[in-house]
Amino acid sequence: MLFRIGLLFIVAYFSACFSEFVDTPDKTYFASKEELNWTDAKNACAESGLELVSILNTKEQELLETFLKEYQLIPEYRWNGYWLSGIRYPNGTFYWDTTGTKVGEDVNGWALGEPNNGFKREHCVEITLNKGASLLAWNDYFCVEERRYLCQSPRKDGPRGQDLDDYSYLTEKIDLPVAKDEYIIPLDFVNTRVQTPYV
Ligand SMILES: *[C@@H]1O[C@H](CO)[C@@H](O)[C@H](O)[C@H]1NC(C)=O
Ligand SMILES: *[C@@H]1O[C@H](CO)[C@@H](O)[C@H](O)[C@H]1NC(C)=O
Ligand SMILES: [Ca+2]
């Protein structure tokens, strides 16, 4: 009996650890303390009744930036981002897994020169610091890498994503079938969004 109580305690302790988020009064966004690869991060959000963050418009980008800034969660350096729900589909186009909508349709948050599909293996979207700047921006990165991640409360309305049958392709090389030109980032994004740099 004692043994079983001990075991229960250990299980409860570990599951509490694994669903650990930064403690904030915010009920919209949740930042993890732990670092997981993209698929594990997706599952960790789901286990808490949440979903990985999608950014569908400028307002949502600003809300997220405000959240990260308010709770001092801005990445300290460029290689220290958070997973979002964006993934590259096998055909090369990015979609928000959470909503099933195209990434960058209404707000273009890509960092300068991103997405660049490094080593043909960068299929998951993180939010991190822009190259050489203190602004937050999106980057495609290796899905196998462990990152902190951002969950959101599921939307009450709006588009819903459908889980893919299989996410294992995310670790594989994807040769982009589209012209490289389509991946050149409009400079006005970098110049116009977020006027006040983070301190
Ligand atoms: C990529 O795949 C998605 C999902 O199957 C599809 O909806 C979309 O039209 C495709 N995009 C292109 C450019 O082929
Ligand atoms: C993440 O790690 C799990 C094991 O914890 C593994 O099953 C899964 O394939 C990994 N996903 C990626 C995208 O690397
Ligand atoms: Ca990249």
From TrEMBL:
Keywords associated with the record: Disulfide bond, Signal
Signal peptide bounds: 1-19
Transmembrane segments annotated in the record for this chain: none
Limits of the C-type lectin domain: 24-152
SUPFAM superfamilies with a match to the protein in the record: C-type lectin-like (SSF56436)
Superkingdom of the organism of origin: Eukaryota
Gene3D superfamilies: Mannose-Binding Protein A, subunit A (3.10.100.10)
Pfam families according to UniProt: Lectin_C (PF00059)
Listed InterPro entries: C-type_lectin-like, C-type_lectin-like/link_sf, C-type_lectin/snaclec_domain, C-type_lectin_CS, CTDL_fold
Keyword Membrane annotated: no
PROSITE patterns: C_TYPE_LECTIN_1 (PS00615), C_TYPE_LECTIN_2 (PS50041)
PANTHER family: MANNOSE, PHOSPHOLIPASE, LECTIN RECEPTOR RELATED
Protein name: C-type lectin domain-containing protein
